[in-house]
Structures are given as structure tokens and as C-alpha cells.
């Protein structure tokens, strides 16, 4: 589909695959990422895009998918397929954990039946075969070992071993105490030599105890003797151990035979886990690049809205820079776009963005562009980017370009996307320009689509005079002398050669001499392009300003209509309430007047008494009216709900929770509370002051850090935990220890069979801040405790 073979690498598609592979949890998932290639079938591309989009929605808005254990069980299933072989304890344990993960995934989607239809298709008609899990759990325990009672024979053997060991220990303790009482023993307790429990006896007393000498001390003063009466008991234990091993092999062989009929289903489970890991990695990468699913079209066309180069986006994010979005359209009317403009103005990035996003969509990957973008399907993508000179093939730079042009002109058709960077360069411009124009004319006649970047004026003129070929330029601020990285179609761009040379500081005499050497007509064309660029930028800025004012006017109009609607809806209620309050005021006033008149009569119109009663009447009337006035808050005209936008802070009604708006829909709003996501109705949230929300968040965070520093101890106990839980707990403590500057971290994992210790140490070796590891002193725990020393 692509030509030449390195076109995918030149466009950056191989880097995209590497980043996606880093998100996988399993090797099988990484293998699927390695096989990603652009497709040409519409239904296949559409399915892949929808799966990635659904998984991205799941990651952002739903409960986490249970993907704790993704072990490669296909090799184990293939091993079990061979009659006479058997899986080990560890291998059965991996199968068990993987099956539990598969069943959890299937149950997860069954509980959400219909919510993720394209993801559900991954395991359609795949049953949950619980008999396999039951059979394995009957034999294998939670630590991955054969259960002591996996069979009656094994239980008897284990019982015999325990009794023999107990008897041997009892007998050797008796001998040891007798030797101590007689003063035959050296300093120290019972010790193990060659796997046998021995007594440390002084060299001069070693003939006083019958038994076998297994070792001597370095000085020769102590002999380690296994008493004769214990020797036979230990041999019995060893024989029983051999019997136990044979019985375990028999049990595992029988269990493998029981598993063998389910091998095809196990392989299907393996494929499901691989696909889930694969799609999950694509969705995680889409989240990193803010990817969306565009509208997919069967036509050989593309319309990208606010598109950004994903690799540039990730790189700029680390430096807190922003990527200028690209808006471009290639269809049956404007088939080929000729992009011109200044050096370092973004022409090549523009072309690579179009090519890379086209390949990503046809490979089923979400792209960093608006969902309104419309992407078609091309059968072929041809790219001529960079210098492909070859000493071995005796190809110069220009010869390499011509070889590609030959292939392009012979094989291009109406469903081919052609990307050519710096078209025609590498030879004398007097000849390179016409050859490039002839090739462009051929591609145009064949109906090919594409993007061409150039500095040649004849190609700009060809695009201006040819239907289906469109000029475009990268905007340049000729006052500040800097590129704007904005693509604008409809006119060619100037190279700004003299302006850039002048800014760099090239001598004025040199520039003057150079201007005299170019033709008068070329000078006029270049000057005209510069003037057009300036006028175009002024119009562009004016359009942006007008658009902002139109938005502001529309918002004010909407606010006014909302207020008018509120007043109309509540007009009758307000008038009715006002009339009732007026009646109440009149009734209360009449009572006050009657009481005042009665008081005047009783005082027989005494002057002072009458004056006091009138003052009392005035105050009473004022209070009566004041009590029925609306409070300040209600006297204000009701305000319409403030429009909530992406990025605003809101409070969820009925709770103290504050969150930030990350997206909006017709009736819902999606909120972010730290790493959590929630969906709320519009009427269930109220906008709050952003500064207040941030202040509270900082205060809470500062208090949490202070508490962590005060209470943190560089010691973690993971005994009894599963491996994944233990590593997760260790990672948290390790991060805090590094952050707070502790020199070491003490990890208590116990001895047991040493499996947990092995996994922990393998994990710590991958942790860059861990310089070395060592066991605790033998008297204080020995191999049951690991000290990790931090850089």
C-alpha cells in the first residue's frame, strides 16, 4: 500500500507503533501492535476505529476493566496438547490466574450488555468454562502450589513425612541435651549440613556419639554429627519426599489430561486477552494524544479539522508548548495542494501531519483532530520525503527523487495519496522546476490526490492556472519576522528569503547586490506575494475579532431571552403575591390606626400623649411595610443560569464535591475529580469560582503532604499478599521514600518458598533509584527481609 518501503518510517508511523506497544501489558499484545498496518477495507477500518473509541470511552467514564493477569497461556495450551506431558505447578497457576481474568472481562461486558457492542464482538459466543477453574483449584492452592490433600495418597505421604520429621527432631533433641549435659557440644545450636540436621560436637568428644560426621569447622575444633538413631529416620523422610514428588507428578499429569480436551478453548481465551490488551493500548495512546474518531468515508478524500501531529503534540506537552492546529481539505475538486512559504514555516510538518493521520485512521487508530473531520480511504500512499541517496545503488539525491517520480507517475491513480516534500529540488532550478511541473501535470491527469511542498514559482503558477490543483501557503508575520504555522489555501506563499536574511543580519551590500541579480519580474512577484500575505493576515485577524464579537452578541441575546422567558413565566405569580402582600399591609395598617385613635381618646387628646402615639403609629407602619419587602437577594432581577463551559469548576449539589468540567453533552456534563470521572445532569451542578476551588485543592494537598511526611516510615510488610498487590504496595512506599529522601526501604516479605522474594527483587532491579539490595541480618529475619538502598 505504501511506497517506498521506508515511507511509513519517514512519516513517523513506526514511532506511533512503538508508543502504543509501550502501553501493552503482555507480549502477545505487543505482537499485535507490531502487525498494525494501514487497511483498505471500509468495514474493517470502521470496526477497529469503533473498538478503540469504545475502549477510550470505557477508560474515561466507566469502572476499570479487570486486567490483573495477562499471562501467555497459548504456549501452555500447546504443551498440554501433547499426550504424556504435564504442566508444572507454576504453569497451572498462570493458567488459573489468566482464566480468572478472562472470566472477569467477560462478566464485565455482560453486565453492560449493548453499551460497548464492538468490544463485545471480541468474545462473542465465548463461554465461561468454570469446570477448568474448578479442576485446577482442586489441586493448586492460592500460592501456586499443589495442595497437601490433592489426593488421599499425597495426604498420607505428607502425614508420614510430618510424623517422621517430628520423631527425628524429638530423638535428636534428646541426644543434643545429653551431649550438652556431658559437656561434649560446642557453642551453638542444631545446624543443617548437606540437608541433614546435625549436632555441633567438640572434636575431642566426637567418638563419644555414634553417628555420621557430615562436616567440620574451619579450625577443626567442631564436628557436625548426625546421630545414628536419627539417620534412619531422616532416610525415611527423604524416601517419603521422593514418593511425594512422584505423587505430585502423577496428580499434575492427571490434571493435564483433564485439561487437554479444553485446549482449543484455552487458545481462544488467549486470543481474547491479547486483543483486549491490544485495543486497551490503542485507547490509552488515544487518551495521551487527545484522539477522536473521525467520520469515515469510502471516498478517496480527506477533510481534517483542527488536526495536530501526534508526536509533535507529545513532545510539546513536555515543554508546555502548544501545537497550531491544521485545517485542510483534499477532495475531487481540490485534488492536489501545492504548499509554499518560508523555510522553517511548517510546510513539511503540515504534509507529514496529513500523511501520518491518514495512515493512522486506515490502521484503526484514533487521531488528534475534531470528530467532525472526515477521512476517506486511499488504496496507495506514495511519499517522497528527505534524502534517499545511496552509494551502493549509485544514486545521487536527485536521482533518488527521479526514481520515485517515475514510480509515482506510472502507478498513481484516483485512489492514491501522493506526498512530495521540496518538489523538484536537488538539481539546477532551471531544469528541476520544469521537470517537477511535468510530473505534477501527469499526477493531475491521473486524478491522484496529494500534498506537494515547494519554493518553485512555476509550480505556484501551474496551481493557479489549473483546476483541481490548489495553492496554499504557511502564514508568516512579516512585521515580527516569524512563522505563524497556519495553513491558508487559495494563494501561494513567499519564501521571504530577503526578509529572513535581513533579520539574521546578512550585510546590506550583499542583499542589495542579490536583489540586482534577480529579474525585475520575479522581484515584482515576490513583493506582491508579501503584500498579499500582509493583507491576508489583516483580514484573518479581522475575521477572528468579528467572530468573537458575534459570539458575545449571541450570548447576550440568549441571556436576554432567558430573562424575558423567566419574567413571562413568573409574571402572574409575582403580581398575585404582591396583591396579597398589599392586602396584608392594609389590614395591619388599619389595626395600627384603630389602636392609635383608641389611645388618643383614652388620653382625652393629651398633646404629649397624642404626639407619642403618632410617632408610634409611623414606626409601626414603616415596620409593616418593611416586613413585606423582598430581601435584597430576591429584589434583584432573577438571573439566568450561567453557561457552564469546558474547563469551569462546578459543585455537585447535595455534596461538598468540587470538580472540573472536561466535556459537555446535550443533557449531561462529564466531570473530573482527580483521577475519577463522573457524569452529572446540568441541573445537578452549579458553577463556582475557579480561584476558590484551586485554593481549597492546594490547601488540602498541602495538608496531605504534611501528614504523609510526619507519619511515613520507610518499612512495608507484604507478607501473605499476592505478588501484584505486594508490588503495588512496595511501589507506593518506594515512591514516598524517594520523594522524602530516605536512604533505604525495609521490605518484610517472609521466607516461605522464596517466590515472593524473587518477584520483589526482580522488580527492584528495574527501579532506577535502587542502587543495591541485601538481606537482613540472620538474627533479625535473614532472607525474610530485604533492604533496598536508594540513590
Summarize the structure in words.
It comes from Parapedobacter pyrenivorans. Its EC number is 3.1.-.-, 3.6.4.-. Residues 629-638 have a biased composition (Basic and acidic residues). The structure is a single chain. The chain folds into five domains: 41-203 and 219-288, MutS, DNA mismatch repair protein, Chain A, domain 3; 305-517, P-loop containing nucleotide triphosphate hydrolases (Rossmann fold); 562-629; 649-704; 712-790, Ribosomal Protein S8, Chain: A, domain 1, CATH 3.30.1370.110. The protein has a seven-stranded mixed sheet, sandwiched between helices. The protein has 791 residues and is an alpha/beta fold. Helix 2 (13-21) runs antiparallel to helix 3, helix 3 crosses helix 11 (263-288) and helix 6 (89-110) packs across helix 11. The protein is built from 24 helices and 24 strands. The radius of gyration is 41 Å and the shape is extended. The protein starts with a strand and ends with a strand.
